[in-house]
Write a structure and sequence with these properties.
Elements: H1 2-17, H2 31-43, H3 47-67, H4 73-99, H5 111-129, H6 132-148, H7 151-162, H8 170-189, H9 191-197, H10 223-236, H11 246-255, H12 265-298, H13 303-325, H14 336-357
């Protein structure tokens, strides 16, 4: 289903792209990355490489298309309402699976990704309006990765809330950070977390490391083995990489399992496109972040721009964190599509705001 979903979304996006007249999305920051993707594909063509290229480009195209529409408050409310309904449906599935099912939620790894989008928007609403109901819903969504013990999901969602750009009070960041740390200690000390994280089923905080590949005591769900399997290819082509989707072919051959994944986007991009490709990708992230941050500071009094821009800025944190332990760049329908759509909406709203402030056009 997910394969069909992203392809249908690609088709819809391309159709709308040709009908888009006004593009305000900051495509310039991503141009070198896109060119590099297509040059790499031309030089080393494969069907899987073509698929990967479209998967990487789809969220950017959605951002471009989203920036070409004009939005009224009613439009934004309608989109938010249906997005929250989607989140509610996923949450009901999660609850049902844990109460009546096996306890395994479908697309378990992707669930915190899509929940982080809702958490960022709800947290933005809370920090702007101070209405406690939004804080309650944030807490409700935060329970999901805790119950499922999706470790990066717990940390990423907590980071989105604690460091949210709509929260201008440094004091409350400290308070929420302290509460988050206490929650982390409680989760860390639980038997289930210990068993999932450490091979000897017991460990201390000092045993945790950022580079989990070099800690033999940590359970990485196979990621360490995949990293070791990819090491020869990483060393053989460090600069330009081994070609689009070469990681999949390499891991499939070694593991003898279809659809081998590194579960680390930084590693996958390095293997396929080298340090050059990874650098261009990160330049795209950095450039668009700075541009979006400038907009959020300039339009702090524009309610919708401030809400969506600060929420999107906060999601950069989650995006980069999820990339370290999963394939979020390819999970387009769970996170990147929404993320870049939010950015496109901000640029569209800014355009309309500037037109409204230009008295010569009125």
């Amino acid at each position: 289903m997910t394969g069909w979903a992203w392809m249908i979304m690609l088709l819809v996006t391309i159709v709308n792209l040709f009908r888009t007249r006004s593009i305000t999305f900051p495509w310039q920051f991503w141009l070198l990355w896109v060119i590099y993707l297509w040059v790499s594909l031309i030089l080393d063509f494969s069907f899987l490489g073509l698929q990967l290229t479209f998967q990487y480009m789809l969220p950017l195209l959605i951002g471009v298309v989203a920036s070409g529409f004009t939005y009224t408050p009613e439009d934004l409310y309608w989109m938010f309402k249906w997005f929250i309904r989607l989140i509610a449906l996923i949450y009901i599935t999660f609850v049902f699976a844990n109460i009546f099912g096996s306890g395994f939620t479908p697309n378990l790894a992707a669930m915190p990704m899509v929940f982080s989008l809702a958490v960022s928007l709800l947290a933005g609403l809370y920090f702007i309006t101070s209405e406690k109901k939004y804080l309650f819903f944030v807490g409700l969504l935060f329970l999901a990765p805790i119950v499922e013990l999706t470790r990066m999901g717990i940390v990423a969602i907590a980071a989105v809330f604690i460091f949210h750009f709509a929260n201008k009070a440094f004091k409350t960041k400290i308070i929420y950070g302290s509460i988050g740390f206490l929650v982390f200690l409680l989760v860390f000390s639980s038997q289930k977390f210990q068993e999932k994280t450490f091979y000897n089923k017991q460990g201390s905080i000092s045993d945790l490391t950022i580079n989990y590949y070099e800690n033999p005591d940590l359970r990485s769900s196979g990621r360490t083995s995949w990293k070791k399997a990819l090491d020869p290819g990483l060393k053989a082509a460090p600069l330009w990489g081994n070609g689009p989707r070469a990681d999949n072919a390499y891991l499939t051959k070694i593991t003898r399992m279809r659809g081998g994944e590194a579960h680390n986007d930084y590693l996958s991009v390095r293997f396929n496109y080298g340090y050059v490709g990874l650098s261009l990708l990160l330049i795209g992230f950095a450039g668009s972040f700075v541009s979006l941050y400038k907009i959020s500071r300039k339009y702090i009094d524009s309610w919708y721009i401030w809400l969506i821009s600060t929420s999107a800025l906060s999601l950069y944190i989650a995006f980069l964190m999820f990339m370290y332990t999963d394939n979020i760049l390819k999970y387009t329908i769970f996170f990147p599509n929404y993320f870049f759509a939010m950015i496109g909406i901000v640029y569209s709203l800014r355009k309309n705001e500037d037109i409204g402030c230009d008295t010569s056009l009125q």
